[in-house]
Amino acid sequence: MILQRYILRELIGSFVFAFMTVLGVCLVGTVFQVFRAFPGLGFEVLTRALPLAVGTMTTWVLLVASCTSSTLVYARLAAENEITAMRTCGIHTWRIISPAVLLGLMLVGLAYPLNEIVVPWTRWSRRLLGRDAAPTILKTPQPGKQDFRIGSTRITYTDYVDGRMQSPTVSKYDKNMVLVQEWFAPSGEILADKDPICVKLTKPRVWRRTKTGQEEWLSAENELTVDIPTEDLNKIPRGRPDLTAEELWELLAATKDRLERARILTILHTRYASSLAPMLLILVAMPIGILVRKGSRLAGLGAALPPMLIYFVSYFIFQGLGDKNRVSPYVAAYAPDLFLGVVAFVLLWGISRR
C-alpha cells in the first residue's frame, strides 16, 4: 500500500501541474480571442467568458493532462530504475500500474458529469454571451473587418470610417438557420439608438429566396433601412449539442426522421465514449513510459504523443461521418476509444511479460 500511495501521489501531482499548465495556455488564447471579437467590451465580456471557457475546455484538457502525467511519472520511474527494483523485490507489474488505473477511474467519474451537464450548459451560455454583447458593440462600431450576429441576422463590413460602414452585408436566416435574404451595399450606417436597431444601406442590391424556393435579385436607387429585431435573442433555439442527456433522449423518442435520430444518438454516445477516454489514454501512455527506459523523462512523453494525436484526429473524423450519417452512430462514437483500447491491450500485455 505504501508503494501504491507513493505512485498515486506522484501521478496526482503531475496531473494537477499538467492540467493547470495546459488550461492556462488555453485561457491565454481565449483572452486574445475575446478582445479581438469584442473590441471595446473586452474586460466586461472577459469576466463572463473565462469561466465559461474553463467549463468548455476542461474535458479536452483532462485528456492531455491524463496522458502527460501518467507518461512522465512512469518514464521517470523506469529511467531511475525504480520499476526494476520493484520487480526485483517480487512486486507484480499489476500492483505497479494499479495507481494509474485508480487515477483513470477517478477521471472517468469526473469526465462523465462534465460531458453530460457542464459542457452543454457552457456551450449554450457562450452562444448567448456573444449574441447579448453584439447589440452593445453596434453602438460603438470598431474599425477594420467585423462580423456580428444578432438573433437570426448577421452584419459584416470591411471597415468603419467616419461613422459609416464600408461594403456592409446584412444577412437574414430562417428558424433553421438557412439563408433567406441578403443586402449588399457600398456603404451604410448603423442606427443603434433606435429600437429595434436599424441598418441604413446606400443603394443596396438585395438577394432573396421566394416561398417557392426561387432566387431573385433586386436593387434600390436610394437608401434602404433594414430592421434588426433584438427580441430574437430570447427565442434562440438550442442546438442538439447544447441539450442535456434527458432532453436528447426525449427528442430521440419524438423524432421519426432516420438522419435526425442518427445525429442525436451520435451526440449521446460520444459523451459516454469521451468520458472513458481519460482512462484509455492513461492505459496507453503508462506502458509507453515504462518501455522507454533509456531515454530522458521527456522521451516517453514524445512517444505517447502519436496515440493521443491519432485519437483526436479520429475523434473529429468519425464525428463528421456520424453527423452526415456516413457511419453508424455507435461506430462514430466508439471507434476512437476502440483504437485506444487495442493499443492499450497490446502495450499492457507487452509489459506484463517482461
Model description:
The chain is of the alpha+beta class and 354 residues long. The protein is 63% helix and 15% strand. The mean pLDDT is 82. The longest helix has 47 residues, at 93-139. The strands form two sheets. A six-stranded antiparallel sheet has the order 1-2-5-6-9-10. The chain has a five-stranded antiparallel sheet with strand order 3-4-7-8-11, covered by helices on one side. Helix 4 crosses helix 6 (258-291) and helix 7 (297-323) runs antiparallel to helix 8. It folds into two domains: 2-132 and 240-352, no CATH class; 152-228, Lipopolysaccharide (LPS) transport protein A like domain (lipopolysaccharide transport protein A fold), CATH 2.60.450.10. It is elongated.
Q: Which helices and strands appear, and what pairs or packs with what?
A:
Layout: H1 2-37, H2 42-79, H3 82-88, H4 93-139, E1 146-150, E2 153-157, E3 159-161, E4 164-166, E5 169-173, E6 179-184, E7 187-191, E8 197-202, E9 205-209, E10 215-219, E11 223-228, H5 245-254, H6 258-291, H7 297-323, H8 329-352
Antiparallel strand pairs: 1-2, 2-5, 3-4, 4-7, 5-6, 6-9, 7-8, 8-11, 9-10
Helix pairs in contact: 1-2, 1-4, 2-4, 2-6, 2-7, 4-6, 5-6, 6-7, 6-8, 7-8
